[in-house]
Structures are given as structure tokens and as C-alpha cells.
């Protein structure tokens, strides 16, 4: 086993240094990036834990497209094409995905936007860098999310290349320009205004910036003022998207990373207790974001902007884990060290045999089973209310005025 682990580690390090070799290794992974509708209709979900697994695409899409901006929680393959240590294009990542192969998703299976795409009647949304650049490939949406990305440009830079929030918005602007050239200004504006935008970013600004005290930031900003700074930046970027005819936006709050295996290991948690000082920062950020999103919704005419408190929903899962079918709330399924939070998931030998009874897949990311529950809650609050002032189902069900 030790020899196999060593070989796996060497292989992954080589693929990180020479990222193109990894991309060439999976030339047939088209389904992971742009699955055909017929293929999605024919596959069966791999998780058996929640009701989300019985979802099948709508016969008619509820919206034209789903556009995704964010970090590793929703990266579906962007970082496969970058020179970075933040990569998930190797097993055991993706082992429980529909294809049972790595796609670049930081999970054993599906990420939340996969489940939501099916709810909306759309195919899985492919990554911006994983497409050919044809409008036909982007007409049902694009995923710009990049692992390591933050609101602050340099957040996560120690990991290597990533596409920051501002760069992702620029990529969307480029996509919009392609739509205009293809279908005219009115056609492009109509498509964008009726589509859903899913924004999930900010956690790396704590993990890779504030908590690491980069540039002595903790002496410049108290946690509360840092949260306000991040939230105000998102506020402005949503307004910029509004100027590009974006009208339906789902803004995700931050997850309880104080309960993540990495910080449980780093802070030497006793008896699996969460690190409350870190969770307090997350609570503050989510509080500020919810307030700002409410004000923004009132300020921007014809907009539908909702805020979903991931912390609230995640803590409900942790506290009531038995009723959800989880028996391990502290240890990652894949990793090394106490709580398996010391080293990122690098090889199949590091993973548990059954991820469905774990809340955490690796140091920071939840399992497919948790993503299914979170997606349920974003859609209609099935398990616990987490979105304000409405759920995604309510948003897309509203008639245009």
C-alpha cells in the first residue's frame, strides 16, 4: 500500500507541474464538461441518501441557462487547465460521479450546481475553459468557477494559477459579447435576463488570506470590517452584472469551515468540537451579505436576488446527522492525519470505502450526499429553510412582469 501511495503521489505531482499532460489524459471526458441531454436522461444518480437522487431533468427547461461563478465548491473542471496545486482531476475525486471518473469536481460525486441544473431542466453545465468556444456549447450556461479563487484577487495565489472573481466576471462579459454577435443585442439580453446566475465565493478569502494573515491583514481589518469589505465588493459586482442584464441571482453564503477537518486538525480540536472563532467570522460575513442582498434587491428594478445561508443549512446537517443518515461528522473520507485533515486527498488509498455516511469528503469539501441536501434546500427548503427572501423554485416560477 505504501508503494502504491508513493507512486500515486509522484503521478499527481507530475500532473501538477505539467498540467497539460493531465488534460490530455482524459480527452474522452466530454460528458464531464458538456454532457448530452440523452446521456443525462439515461444515467442513474450514484448517491442513495436523499430525495435529490431521484431528480430527472425537466421535460422543458425552466430557464434558458445557468451561469456559475465561484470557487472549488462548484468548480467542475476549470483548474484542470491551470498550473496549480488545487486540482481534482485524479481519483478518488469523481469516483462516485455519474461517470465514476475524475472531472475536476472537488467531491466524490456531484456538486450542488449539478443537482440544481437538473432541477432547472438543464444539462450539467460545463467549464468555461473546457469548451470549444462555440455559442452552441454555451447556450445552456457556463461554469466559470475556479478552485482557490476569492473575492480578493490574490487569495489562493500560493496554490498556483486560478481565475479570480473579477476575472470570472470578465469571462462572462466575453461570453455575453459572443451571444450578441450570434443572436443580436435583444436576443442576448433576453437570454441573460431570464437565466439564473449562481454565485458562491468568499471562503478562500478567509482560508488563504485572512486566517493566514497575508500582508498583515489582521492588523488592518478586524473580522467584522473584513467581512464588510468582502460583502461590499460582491455588492458592486452584482450591480455590474445587473448592468449586463443579469436579473436572477443566487448568492451563496459561506460554509462552517470551523468544522472542516483541516481546522479541526490544525487547531487540535478536542472531541470533534468545531473551531468557534473561525465559525464566528463566517456568521458575520453571512449576516452582512444577507442584509446587503435584501437592500440590493430593493434597489435594482426587476431583479430577483436571493441569499442562501450555507452555514445555517450545514449546521443543521451536522447537528441532526443521524436523521440525515450520516455517522461521521468530523473525519474527512479522504486524507491523512487527525480528522484526516492534514493532507489533501491525493490517492485512492487515502479514501474511505463509503463516502455516503461522511459529511466531509476531504479537508474542506463536503460529500456528494451533503451537496444533494444543500441543493434541495436551495431549491425549495425541503430539509431546512436557508434562502431569503425566497427559494430558487419560487424565483424561476415567478411570472415576468
TrEMBL record:
Recorded superkingdom: Eukaryota
Keywords: Hydrolase, Lipid degradation, Lipid metabolism, Signal
Gene3D superfamilies hit by this protein: SGNH hydrolase
Keyword hit for DNA repair: no
GO MF terms held by the record: hydrolase activity, acting on ester bonds
Protein family (similarity comment): Belongs to the 'GDSL' lipolytic enzyme family.
Protein name, entry field: SGNH hydrolase-type esterase domain-containing protein
Amino acid at each position: 500500500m505504501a508503494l502504491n501511495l508513493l507512486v500515486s503521489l509522484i503521478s499527481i505531482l507530475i500532473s501538477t507541474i505539467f498540467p497539460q499532460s493531465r488534460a490530455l489524459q482524459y480527452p474522452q471526458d466530454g460528458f464531464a464538461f458538456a454532457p448530452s441531454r440523452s446521456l443525462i436522461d439515461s444515467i442513474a444518480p450514484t448517491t442513495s441518501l436523499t430525495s435529490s437522487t431521484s431528480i430527472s431533468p425537466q421535460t422543458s427547461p425552466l430557464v434558458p441557462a445557468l451561469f456559475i461563478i465561484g470557487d472549488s465548491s462548484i468548480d467542475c473542471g476549470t483548474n484542470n487547465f491551470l498550473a496549480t496545486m488545487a486540482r481534482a482531476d485524479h481519483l478518488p475525486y469523481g469516483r462516485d460521479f455519474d461517470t465514476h471518473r475524475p472531472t475536476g469536481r472537488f467531491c466524490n460525486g456531484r456538486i450542488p450546481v449539478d443537482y440544481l441544473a437538473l432541477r432547472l431542466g438543464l444539462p450539467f453545465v460545463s467549464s468555461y475553459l473546457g469548451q470549444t468556444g462555440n455559442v452552441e456549447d454555451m447556450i445552456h450556461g457556463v461554469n466559470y468557477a475556479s478552485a482557490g479563487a476569492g473575492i480578493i484577487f490574490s487569495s489562493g495565489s500560493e496554490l498556483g494559477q486560478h481565475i479570480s472573481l473579477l476575472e470570472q466576471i470578465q469571462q462572462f462579459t466575453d461570453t455575453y459579447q459572443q451571444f450578441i454577435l450570434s443572436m443580436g443585442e435583444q436576443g442576448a439580453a433576453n437570454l441573460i435576463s431570464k437565466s439564473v446566475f449562481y454565485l458562491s465565493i468568499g471562503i478562500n478569502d478567509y482560508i488563504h488570506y485572512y486566517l493566514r494573515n497575508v500582508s498583515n491583514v489582521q492588523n488592518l481589518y478586524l473580522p467584522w470590517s473584513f467581512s464588510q469589505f468582502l460583502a461590499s465588493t460582491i455588492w458592486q459586482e452584482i450591480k455590474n452584472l445587473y448592468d449586463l442584464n443579469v436579473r436572477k441571482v443566487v448568492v451563496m453564503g459561506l460554509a462552517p469551515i470551523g468544522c472542516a477537518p483541516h481546522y479541526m486538525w490544525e487547531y487540535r480540536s478536542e472531541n470533534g468540537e468545531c473551531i468557534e472563532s473561525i465559525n464566528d467570522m463566517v456568521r458575520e460575513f453571512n449576516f452582512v451579505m444577507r442584509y446587503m442582498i435584501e437592500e440590493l434587491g430593493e434597489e435594482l428594478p426587476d431583479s430577483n436576488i436571493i441569499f442562501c445561508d450555507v452555514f445555517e443549512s450545514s449546521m443543521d446537517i451536522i447537528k441532526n446527522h443521524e436523521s440525515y443518515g450520516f455517522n461521521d461528522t468530523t473525519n474527512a473520507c479522504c486524507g491523512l492525519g487527525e480528522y484526516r485533515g492534514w493532507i489533501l486527498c491525493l490517492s485512492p488509498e487515502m479514501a474511505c470505502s463509503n463516502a455516503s455516511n461522511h459529511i466531509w469528503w476531504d479537508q474542506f469539501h463536503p460529500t456528494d450526499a451533503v451537496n444533494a441536501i444543500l441543493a434541495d434546500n436551495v431549491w425549495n427548503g425541503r430539509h431546512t429553510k436557508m434562502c431569503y427572501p425566497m427559494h430558487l423554485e419560487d424565483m424561476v416560477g415567478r411570472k415576468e412582469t
